[in-house]
Amino acid sequence: MTQVFSRMICCTQELMHHYHEPQKRIHDKNI
């Protein structure tokens, strides 16, 4: 159970990172 949960958190963090990267680039472009 704990393993699955930590794996989910890892996946979520990865997804957030991938989602955040393009946003950062767009922000840099706007400036």
Please tag this protein with its features.
1 helix, mainly alpha, 31 residues
Protein described:
There is one protein chain. The protein is built from one helix and no strands. The chain is 94% helix and 0% strand. The model has no long low-confidence stretch (mean pLDDT 77). It is mainly α and 31 residues long. It starts with a helix and ends with a helix. The chain has one helix at residues 2-30.
Concise summary:
The protein has one helix and no strands.
Unreliable spans? none
The biggest sheet, with number of strands, parallel, antiparallel or mixed sense and barrel status, is:
none
Average residue pLDDT: 77
The general outline is rod-shaped
Number of strands: 0
Instruction: Assign a percent range to the helix content.
Output: over 70%
Instruction: Report the β-strand fraction as a percent range.
Output: under 5%
What is the H/E order?
A: H
CA radius of gyration = 14 Å
Compute the separation of the termini in Å.
Answer: 45 Å
Given the helix and strand composition, which structural class is it?
mainly alpha
Helix count, DSSP H or I runs of 4 or more residues? 1
Q: What's the layout of helices and strands?
A:
Blueprint (H helix, E strand, L loop, with lengths): L1 H29 L1
